[in-house]
Amino acid sequence: MSYVRVVYQDVSDSADAFLNGLEQLEQCLVSEARESFRRALSDSFVEDPYYHTYQSYFGLASLLCGEKSAIVRIRDAAVTCPADGDIHMNLARAELFLTNRKRAIDAIENGLRFSGDHLGLRVLRERVGVRRRKVIPLIPRSHPLNHFLGRWLLRKKTSIC
């Protein structure tokens, strides 16, 4: 899994261990990043404004280290802080890592609902690719009629603009 920039909010006043973990994660030093995030999480309290962010990153690093149950930690952070785009981006990346494409798309859409200008979520949505709804929902997407009508509507839409 490649990382462009793992965090998009200003975290300059967060724990040093967390900042070290971000740098390590960007360099794909996942086990070292996991340890740094664990330290940041254990040194903070639930009242800390970054607590759920630490929880999310610790969960992501743990998942990348092979701990499949860490997805629960990331999902919990996303439910607790629905307006944090970084947490939703971590959740989407984790779901993609576990090959849960539908859940990843849901995480991206939920994150964009609250943080519409989150560049990372927008880039991730482009990379994942979100399909439009079927023209005729009662027949399969692969049916020639859905193909024909979909192409026709797309042409009609682009010719109007």
Determine the strand fraction and express it as a percent band.
under 5%
State the end-to-end distance: 38 Å
Question: Which segments are poorly predicted (pLDDT under 50) over 5 or more consecutive residues?
Answer: none
Shape: elongated
Mean pLDDT: 87
> What structural category do the secondary elements indicate?
mainly alpha
Whole-angstrom Rg: 19 Å
Largest β-sheet summary: none
Number of helices: 8
The helix-strand sequence is HHHHHHHH
Residue share in helix = 55-70%
**Quick one: how many beta strands?**
0
Structural features, described:
The protein is mainly alpha-helical and 161 residues long. It has helices at residues 16-26, 30-42, 51-64, 71-80, 85-97, 101-114, 119-128, 144-160. It is elongated, with a radius of gyration of 19 Å. The two termini are 38 Å apart.
Topology:
Elements: H1 16-26, H2 30-42, H3 51-64, H4 71-80, H5 85-97, H6 101-114, H7 119-128, H8 144-160
Helix pairs in contact: 1-2, 2-3, 3-4, 3-5, 4-5, 5-6, 6-7
